[in-house]
Amino acid sequence: ILNVEQSPQSLHVQEGDSTNFTCSFPSSNFYALHWYRWETAKSPEALFVMTLNGDEKKKGRISATLNTKEGYSYLYIKGSQPEDSATYLCAFFYNFNKFYFGSGTKLNVKP
Amino acid sequence: GAVVSQHPSRVICKSGTSVKIECRSLDFQATTMFWYRQFPKQSLMLMATSNEGSKATYEQGVEKDKFLINHASLTLSTLTVTSAHPEDSSFYICSARDHGTSGGGFTDTQYFGPGTRLTVL
């Protein structure tokens, strides 16, 4: 079992704040790193698939960066909104055939 | 994104009974589906990889005879928890693997069902 860690475990911010969280993963045998958003009572939704060192991806106010050499990825949310409240998961895609998930960062954005 | 359904969403059963959970990809064909289990406040733990037309690949520590997986078609995989006991109570969630159009497999992603909450009394 590979170790994928996310921090912080939870985060409470005010509407309008910008925030970021971290996913760390093994730096060897890298294939891809995925980010998901998981809202309560819904299915996890894919945000980004990151494959190359130095990758930066953006989707609206959410962006992510990737450093495969040191084994981490950051997820940024600019100007958080209450609808951003969710658990954000990262998953390390290993050996082309399985995903190892972090335990997630639970974000709560207060109006 | 693609849609994956999972049924039932919630099930309560007595100890010793078997429970079947269905996972369907509604708008694409999935040769591979994954089954995960989530314990409280923990991450999604891969239980097994379900491959259409062949036997599932189970992760270390997952009992094959306890968690039967069948992937009979390109849109349906089922997980049967046999002779369920209270320790099997958990949240089970499936996903369907979608092969990316570029990147030689690197951009493959997965689409999740909404999950099944199993409670065994």
Structure overview:
The complex is a heterodimer of chains A (111) and B (121). Helix content of chain A is 0%, strand content 56%. Chain A has strands spanning 5-7, 10-14, 19-24, 32-38, 45-50, 56-59, 62-67, 72-77, 86-94, 98-101, 105-110. In chain A, strand 4 and strand 5 (45-50) form a beta hairpin. Chain B starts with a strand and ends with a strand. Chain B has strands at 4-7, 10-13, 19-25, 32-38, 44-51, 57-58, 67-73, 76-81, 90-98, 109-112, 116-120. With 121 residues, chain B is mainly beta. In chain B, strand 4 and strand 5 form a beta hairpin. The chains are: A mainly beta (111), B mainly beta (121). At the A-B interface, strand 4, strand 5, strand 9 and strand 10 of A face strand 4, strand 5 and strand 10 of B.
* Arithmetic mean pLDDT of chain B: 91
Helix/strand/pairing class of chain B, anyone? mainly beta
- Cα-atom radius of gyration of chain B: 14 Å
Distance between the termini of chain B: 37 Å
Low-confidence stretches of chain B: none
Radius of gyration of chain A (Å) = 13 Å
CA-CA gap between termini of chain A: 39 Å
Note the beta-strand portion of chain A. over 45%
Total count of helical runs of at least 4 residues of chain B? 0
List low-pLDDT spans of chain A.
none
Shape of chain B: globular
Described by strand count, sense and barrel closure, the largest sheet of chain A is: 6 strands, mixed
Helical amount of chain A: under 10%
